[in-house]
Design a protein that fits this description.
- The chain is mainly α and 256 residues long.
- It has twelve helices and four strands, in the order αααααααααβααβαββ.
């Protein structure tokens, strides 16, 4: 790919500077000065996409990102940007974002942000085991694990700021987990780490269990609690020794 030459590269640098200052209008005006021959250059397309992202113009961002993938298929960021825009565009959605990004995981096996984003999508599909696998893959190839952690926390904070409630289920165990001890046995204990870094939002709660054998019961308890919190009602349990337990869930009826 050819490099941009003056004055096009000067306009692009100025646009990038304005964008960093948060002035989207001036950034867009600088891009307007770029010659027709250079307007589909991958570097120009990337800044155009950044302007769309900054202004939440996701419908406009989709064709720009499609051009980026076509013009620079060897750039991982082009694939990530396309999936990100598709996730939010009116004609897109979660499945389209997943389908668009999944092939990039094989094309760029050493790019950590691709499995990170796939982990986010899998979690939104409620495929939590798959999400964990993608996240661990991202951690395993990421040179700057703290940057990855900061991004994950920022995503969580943004979701909470938008009114999303995030609950947690922490499993306390002594199982060795080489390379991920900072997550399974963090300083201060796993429950406190969950309280500080995971749960958040209105009515959020944390469930703590002592071993994996209790996982299914704890997950059921968590899901029932979330249903009751969302819709109102009550939940009760009755157990008989040797005969199991019965869970009774009562929800209000909407008669509108």
């Amino acid at each position: 790919m050819r490099e941009l030459t003056p004055p096009d590269n000067h306009h692009l640098n100025a646009a990038t500077g304005w964008l960093e200052l948060g002035n989207h209008a001036e950034a867009k005006a600088e891009l307007a000065g770029i010659s027709d021959a250079s307007r589909e250059h991958p570097d120009v397309l990337e800044v155009r996409w950044e302007i769309c992202a900054a202004t939440q113009s996701w419908d406009a961002a989709v064709p720009i990102s499609e051009q980026s993938v076509a013009k620079a298929p060897g750039r991982p960021q082009s694939w990530i940007h396309r999936a990100y825009a598709l996730r939010r565009a009116s004609s897109g959605g979660l499945q389209r974002a997943w389908d668009a990004l999944l092939p990039a995981a094989e094309l760029f096996p050493q790019e950590p942000w691709i499995p990170y984003n796939l982990a986010c999508y899998a979690a939104q599909f409620s495929r939590l085991d798959e999400a964990w696998e993608w996240f661990c893959r991202s951690l395993g190839i990421c040179a700057d694990k703290q940057a990855l952690k900061r991004t994950a926390l920022a995503d969580r904070d943004q979701a909470v700021a938008e009114g999303v409630t995030i609950n947690g289920l922490a499993i306390i165990n002594d199982r060795p987990n080489p390379g991920y001890a900072f997550h399974t046995q963090p300083p201060g204990g796993l429950p406190e780490w969950y309280r500080q870094n995971v749960i958040g939002g209105p009515g959020s709660f944390l469930r703590v269990i002592d071993d994996f054998r209790s996982f299914s019961d704890a997950m059921t308890n968590k899901l029932v609690s979330e249903i009751v919190a969302r819709h109102g009602g009550s939940v009760s349990a009755h157990s008989t020794k040797g005969a199991g337990a019965t869970l009774r869930l009562v929800l209000p009826v909407d008669r509108r």
